[in-house]
Amino acid sequence: MATNSSPLSVSLLSSLLLILLAILSSGSLTISSHGFSIREATVAELQLAFKQNRLTSRKLVEFYLGEIQRLNPVLRGAIEVNPDALRLADKADIERKVKAPRSLHGLHGIPVLVKDNIATKDNKMNTTSGSFALLGSIVPRNAFVVTKLINAGAIILGKASLSEWANFRGLAPNGWCARSGQGKNPYVLSADPCGSSSGSAISVAANMAAVTLGTETDGSILCPSSYNSVVGIKPTVGLTSRDGVIPISPKQDTVGPICRTVADAVYVLDAIVGFDRNDAATREASKYIPHGGYKQFLKPYGLNKKRLGIVRNPFVVNGSVVTKVFEHHIQTMRQRGAVVVDNLKIANIDDILNFSASGELVTLLAEFKVSLNSYLKGLVASPVRSLADVIAFNNKFSKLEKIKEYGQILFEAAQVTEGIDSDVKEAYSNLAKLSRNGLEKLMREKKLDAVVTPRSNFATVLAIGGYPGINVPAGYDSNGVPFGICFGGLKGTEPNLIEIAYGFEQATKIRKPPSFKP
């Protein structure tokens, strides 16, 4: 936009752009190939279209690149696209024609955006966690999950934006990073997109990608999925490798899918789980992976005979629109055969949700410094080699994209820590005790298959114990802002959670395409 545009013309152009986005997203313009509508298509529908020669991977990639070009100037859901995406699409089309073994995989020829803290080793895309400090750095190899996606035939479409440094730098709003600017919620542009996998959720919700990958330390998959009306699976810690992922906490970090449907998320989960010798946590967690994968648990009546615990305090706020919808969903779950155990309490829940009282903040700060320094030292080339270097970079370029305004209070607090000392070990012990006497005790005593709460505020309970959770779209508030429902369980209970989440999704089918309201 020209720098000499008047404020009136800028406002008018912005309004016209918002109107155009709303028209295009309403379905009045359908992007299709041989009569097949790409927008909102699931992975299974895309694969069927490939099989019936109604669609090619090239056409599919061209569609998503076009949507990124059209929508991203407003939504800021992607940081960069893969310049090789069309070449890789052509390769996938050839593999399909010659019936190459890889073409039989469910993600073959499917474009995926990966969060910008997940390494891609192609020397054409950056891995920066949204920060200029890592621009131009060179990673030693693809992240393990990226290699798994490539082996499954997926096309790496590009890098999704994120709350810079996975929301662990300072006081920036959710969805903001220096490289891409402020991410916008595609349903209500002024609403919170949540963090830190905001770009992954924004992009897949707005049909800028078929599927996406995010990461979570505490809420960063579940929260943006809730706010952007998509499905997010936060796996058991160690079920997916963190090798090649810019870290915060080895105890809590996990990588998972963010997609438009439960089935799509499960296809991605199946592709990325597994043992990795470069991530010790995967050795223990790999025992949870079921023979035959997770797709087998996509059962339409998965709610039947499941014991679901409702924890109201402090997650359910009486009188709100969200609560009214949540109560309706509880009845739906009962009608679908679930045994609902209501009004349950988690011991010491106030302490669990208090970062300071629980010890979570102490462990995250210490782990972040140690693990980030290790990651930076392992890069082939990088402008920064330590957390201290990153802090110095931000101080030097404090006028760059609001870095000074938003600060780096968490960086500075982490820098003064001294490794895994006695205070950190004590905090670990307290977190384990809170989990053991809290969620674990509740679920075992009540024989629950899952705990159910509205929105994503339950994420901290899951985070400190390394437990899995799934967010499914559940409704929209009076302003049109989406909210989800969270199903959480103990380590390795993904099969149960997938049955429950898929059963709920099929019974309700809440999700609708974004409206791009101002």
From TrEMBL:
The keyword Signal applies. SUPFAM superfamilies: Amidase signature (AS) enzymes. Residues 1-27 form the signal peptide. It comes from the Eukaryota. Residues 60-457 form the Amidase domain. Pfam families: Amidase. InterPro entries: Amidase_dom, AS_sf. Keywords: Signal. The keyword Signal applies. This is Amidase domain-containing protein. It comes from Acer yangbiense.
